[in-house]
Amino acid sequence: ETDTGRLPTAAQNVEMRVYGGATPAAGRVEQTGFVAAPLLFVGPNQVNFQMPFDVEGMSAVWIAAARDGIESEREMVSLARASPGIFVGGNGWAAVLNDNNVLNSPASAAAGGTIVTVFFSGLGPVAPQIPSGAPTPFTPLHLPTSSFSAQVGGQNAPVVGVAMTPGFVGLAQMSLIVPEGLAPGQVSLQITIAGRASNGVL
């Protein structure tokens, strides 16, 4: 993290370069100049980064890792308006807070009719837009510009609200109402943003 709170775009002399390429033409994607992506983690064999908001509206990009300015082979990556992924803890349970702000678990289950908050990434474009790599401000709320829905235990779950999580980079949250009448125990959870479904979790 930099002194401004934004994620760095270089660490350990490593960059992740994202080359724009809007619309496939003649079966290929035209490469343009690159944007250095904000870095979350850099390891010997792995780099975690935030896909910059600059790619909004593009169908595909090329990415390459660069160390000391020397690039790896570029690889094409397809893009979607949203790509929700619910975070899962080490116990295999979804990152969900109950209405009492306690993490959902077998020992702390949510009751039907209560509100729970699901944490995920891949919300896509929001308004107002947030600079790539910057933590989400606490005000105003940064809301999705795409449609959204949720299912719990195979039933539609009313969504109370969706927004980027203040103070974090790239983290989003959805508050929903747990449907009444579900059998006690583990139930499936899945959210959908811009028509794209997340991973199904418990």
Explain what you see:
The chain is mostly beta strands. The protein has strands at 14-19, 34-36, 39-42, 47-49, 60-67, 70-71, 75-78, 85-86, 96-97, 115-121, 126-127, 143-144, 148-152, 155-156, 159-164, 172-177, 189-193, 196-197. Strands 1, 2, 5, 6 and 7 form a 5-stranded antiparallel beta sheet that branches. Strands 8, 9, 10, 15 and 16 form a 5-stranded antiparallel beta sheet that branches. Strands 14-13-17-18 form a 4-stranded antiparallel beta sheet, with no helix packed on it. Strand 13 and strand 14 form a beta hairpin. The two termini are 32 Å apart.
Entry summary:
By secondary structure, the protein is an all-beta fold. The chain has strands spanning 14-19, 34-36, 39-42, 47-49, 60-67, 70-71, 75-78, 85-86, 96-97, 115-121, 126-127, 143-144, 148-152, 155-156, 159-164, 172-177, 189-193, 196-197.
SSE arrangement:
Elements (H helix, E strand, L loop, with lengths): L13 E6 L14 E3 L2 E4 L4 E3 L10 E8 L2 E2 L3 E4 L6 E2 L9 E2 L17 E7 L4 E2 L15 E2 L3 E5 L2 E2 L2 E6 L7 E6 L11 E5 L2 E2 L5
Antiparallel strand pairs: 1-2, 1-5, 3-4, 5-6, 5-7, 8-10, 9-10, 10-16, 11-12, 13-14, 13-17, 15-16, 17-18
Structural class of the helices, strands and pairings?
A: mainly beta
> Measured on Cα atoms, how large is the radius of gyration?
19 Å
Order of helices and strands: EEEEEEEEEEEEEEEEEE
Helix content: under 10%
> What can be said about the biggest beta sheet?
5 strands, antiparallel
How many strands?
18
Number of helices: 0
> In what range is the share of β-strand residues?
35-45%
Q: Provide the low-confidence segments as ranges.
A: 22-27
Oligomer: single chain
Q: In whole angstroms, how far apart are the ends? A: 32 Å
Mean of residue pLDDT values: 91
- What general form does the structure show? elongated
